[in-house]
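Sequence in, structure out.
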Amino acid sequence: MTCIANGRVTCIKPARYVQQLVSHWKHKMDASWEPLANGGCGTFPFSDDTFATMVCERDMISIQLTTASFERNIEMRGVIERHIERFAFREAPLCYVWAQEDV
């Protein structure tokens, strides 16, 4: 079973926070950053069956999280939220909105 959730969070410096996440997680995985016209995109391959993409716009991070189970998806949402909060501590607490996709 594959579980996909799409999330978003409004913040002041989305590209900066995602770039910091890439640097932070780079030592554990092949995380990467790609600059885009309106911001950028971070990719995070946590494991063979857990993967996140974070697209930055002017004032928002859009997150797509794919996991092998619903339970793992909920767990990883928390991991992602806690790590973004670390870098966005001046704005914390942030408000995350998640929607589950049917696969």
